[in-house]
C-alpha cells in the first residue's frame, strides 16, 4: 500500500470504469474525491491507499473519519482492477483500512452500497470481510434501488 500520486489518476479512472459497477456519474464523483486529496494536502476528510502489483496500480480505497463522531470512519470507495479481482488485492485494501482505523482508536467502519444486481458481487465481498448489514433505506437512490449500510465494529481499549 502506498499514498496516492497524481500520476495514478488515469489508471484509477480506468479501473473504476472497467469494474462495470459504477455509473459515469459515480466515476466522476470518485475521481473528484481523488482530486480533493491531491489538491488539498491539508484536508483531513479523506485518506487514500493505492495497491500495486509489480509496479502497476491495481486498486485503491478512499476512507475517512466521520465528522462529529467518536471513532467512526466511512469507507467511501474501494475498487480493484477486474484483471486481478479474486487475487486478494481487495482484501489487502480492506485490511489496510481496518488496521489504520484500529491504530487510530476507531470503533467502527461504515460503508454504503446499492441493492442493484450489479452490486451483488460487492455485497458478497463485504459479507466475507465481516461487515454486517446494519440498515436499508428502501428506494433511496431511485425507485427499486435501496441504500444498504454495512458496519464492522472493533473493540477499543479504554484508557485508564
Describe this structure in words.
- InterPro entries: Acyl_CoA_acyltransferase (IPR016181), GNAT_dom (IPR000182), MshD_Acetyltransferase (IPR050276).
- Residues 1-157 form the N-acetyltransferase domain.
- The protein has 160 residues and is α+β, with helices and mostly antiparallel strands.
- The protein has a domain at 6-112: Aminopeptidase (3-Layer(aba) Sandwich), CATH 3.40.630.30.
- The chain is 31% helix and 33% strand.
- The protein has 4 helices and 6 strands, in the order ααβββαβαββ.
- It has helices at 9-18, 24-39, 89-103, 120-128, and strands at 47-53, 56-65, 72-80, 108-114, 132-142, 145-153.
- The protein has a 6-stranded mixed sheet, sandwiched between helices.
- Strand 5 (132-142) and strand 6 form a beta hairpin.
- The mean pLDDT is 93.
How many distinct beta strands? 6
Distinct helical segment count: 4
CATH fold-level assignment of the domain at 6-112: Aminopeptidase
The global form is: globular
Average pLDDT taken over every residue: 93
The helix content, as a percent range, equals 25-40%
Order of helices and strands: HHEEEHEHEE
- For the record, the CATH architecture of the domain at 6-112 stands as 3-Layer(aba) Sandwich
* CATH class category of the domain at 6-112: Alpha Beta
Rg, Cα atoms, Å: 16 Å
- Placed side by side, the strands forming the largest sheet appear as 1-2-3-4-6-5
User: How would you characterize the largest beta sheet?
Assistant: 6 strands, mixed
Strand percentage lies at 25-35%
**What structural category characterises the helix and strand content?**
alpha+beta
- pLDDT < 50 stretches: none
CATH level-4 homologous superfamily of the domain at 6-112: Gcn5-related N-acetyltransferase (GNAT)
> What distance separates the N and C termini?
33 Å
